[in-house]
TrEMBL record:
Membrane protein topology class: Multi-pass membrane protein
Annotated protein name in UniProt: TrkH family potassium uptake protein
GO cellular component: plasma membrane
Keyword Ligase: no
Family matches, as InterPro entries: Cat_transpt
Keyword annotations from UniProtKB, A to Z: Cell membrane, Ion transport, Membrane, Transmembrane, Transmembrane helix, Transport
Superkingdom of source: Bacteria
């Protein structure tokens, strides 16, 4: 029987559809890292187009493409840096878009897609578990086998996703309720506060740090209750969903916490107090920051600044007035960032902990790296070194390029670049005045920092290959 004219195109379209389906199935299972990058790029382009619309700006004009793109990148990558005045430029529609983008970016695009699929189908297939696993543990993102035990096992991904969705809704709602009275007391109407409270809840829990009030947090600088709630929300967002998941099951039995939870919490607390002490010592005589405040306020603001440099991005003092030594301390804290699989950026606290333990083990002449009665495998140590090297390389290149374009002081350029790479959002004032070429460089830096150095490396690399031979050993001289 001779095929009709209509059946031939239909068959061709079916073959194309099957081919596309096979392509995306292979992409999501063989390389979740590449799929993650594709999803993030798609989200950024969508939000760029929406933020460019006249309805998104307060004066109903088209936002320049550089500003719309940078805002989309900053929101989706939960960074908080801005090239426009966030308190006056955007309309309610624009703020709602940023609210949505920050929530999507904070959860992780792949985690959100898996959560939605779980809600709709009430079950999670193997492919969806593999996709979500790439978000919950970067070591899985290369698409090959993972030999050692993981923080969250593949069979627990469905339960973890439920915890992620539930904890996000509960924490953001609770933070919004707690912030509402302070926003009303600050002079906003009860109706306006109904929008600002959840907006600040999302900006803090996702560690985005956008402030939609004129003057930023100036109206709340002496409201210690408001600032404490913000710090608590930032902390919960920065420790990571695997830690929240573990604590939800074993909160009262710390001896049963796994190594990842212990390293994350201990390193986070240590950096919080060390950073606070450093800022207190370096800034208490600076009239531009803490020098005019009393002892209690200076101490509190030092703790607040230490918490925000870990990825929160909110600020009470003018960052541009910090001493050069404080800018360096802040850069170091931002570069480390928060916990793995969290809304925070940076190379992550567990990376720092593993590197520190490796150095300590080497100094003591131990053949293996151990902590809390557990051995840390060599592949985790190699990934930690790779993350540090990739992060330092990205920051160095971006700093050189932007410093050359702007001819600005290198310490301020370095601070803003690390703030972008680590998705923090603090700025010395440099970012808002960047020329368009530097804006694009900063946007790429933010994207690379949020997607993750491990994910970028895995996406560029080919699929795992087995090597059935080994070369002769020769030891170069190092050190």
């Amino acid at each position: 029987m001779t095929p009709t004219a209509s059946s031939v195109p239909r068959a061709a379209w079916n073959r194309i559809g099957d081919a596309l389906g096979d392509f995306f199935r292979d992409l999501t299972t063989s390389s979740p890292a590449r799929f993650a990058i594709l999803v993030f790029i798609s989200l950024i382009l969508i939000f760029t187009a929406l933020l460019s619309l006249p309805i998104a700006s307060a004066d109903r004009t088209v936002t320049p493409i550089a500003d719309a793109l940078f805002t989309a990148v900053s929101a989706v990558c939960v960074t908080g840096l801005a090239t426009v005045d966030m308190s006056t430029h955007w309309s309610f529609f624009g703020e709602a878009l940023i609210f949505l983008a920050a929530n999507i970016g904070g959860l992780g695009a792949l985690t959100l897609a898996s959560v939605l699929g779980l809600v709709v189908s009430r079950r999670l297939g193997l492919r969806a578990k593999l996709i979500a696993a790439g978000d919950t543990n970067p070591l899985r993102s290369h698409g090959g086998p993972v030999n050692e035990s993981q923080t969250v096992r593949l069979g627990e991904i469905g339960q973890l996703l439920r915890i992620v969705a539930l904890s996000t809704v509960i924490i953001e709602a609770a933070v919004a309720i707690l912030l509402y009275p302070s926003i009303v007391i600050a002079g906003h109407s009860w109706l306006e506060s109904l929008w600002l409270a959840p907006l600040y809840a999302v900006m803090s829990f996702t560690n985005t740090g956008f402030s939609f009030n004129p003057g930023g947090l100036e109206a709340f600088q002496y409201d210690y209750y408001f600032l404490t709630v913000l710090m608590a929300s930032v902390f919960l967002g920065s420790i990571g969903f695997p830690v929240i998941y573990a604590l939800s099951k074993q909160l009262l039995t710390p001896r049963r916490w796994n190594l990842h939870v212990k390293l994350t919490l201990i390193t986070t607390v240590i950096l919080f107090f060390v950073g606070s002490g450093a800022f207190l010592a370096l800034e208490f005589l600076n009239p531009g920051t803490f020098g005019t405040r009393d002892a209690w306020d200076t101490t509190f603001q030092a703790f607040f600044l230490s918490a925000m440099t870990r990825s929160g991005g909110f600020s009470v003092v003018d960052i541009g007035e910090l001493n050069g030594s404080s800018l360096l301390v802040g850069s170091m804290l931002m570069f480390v960032g928060g916990g793995s699989a969290s809304t925070a950026g940076g190379i992550k606290v567990t990376t720092l902990a593993v590197l520190a333990l490796a150095v300590w083990s080497e100094a003591r002449g131990r053949a293996s790296v151990e902590a809390f009665g557990r051995r840390i495998p060599s592949d985790v140590q190699r990934v930690s070194v790779a993350v540090l090297a990739w992060g330092a390389t990205i920051v160095a290149l971006a700093t050189i390029v932007i410093a050359q374009i702007t001819l600005a002081p290198v310490d301020k350029v370095l601070f803003d670049v690390i703030s972008g790479f680590a998705t923090v959002g603090l700025s010395t004032g440099l970012t808002e005045d960047l020329p368009d070429p530097a804006v694009y460089v900063m946007a790429v830096t933010i994207f690379m920092g949020r997607v993750g150095t491990v994910t970028l490396a895995a996406a560029v690399a080919a699929s795992s290959r087995s090597q059935l031979y080994s070369l002769p050993v020769e030891r170069p001289i190092v050190g």
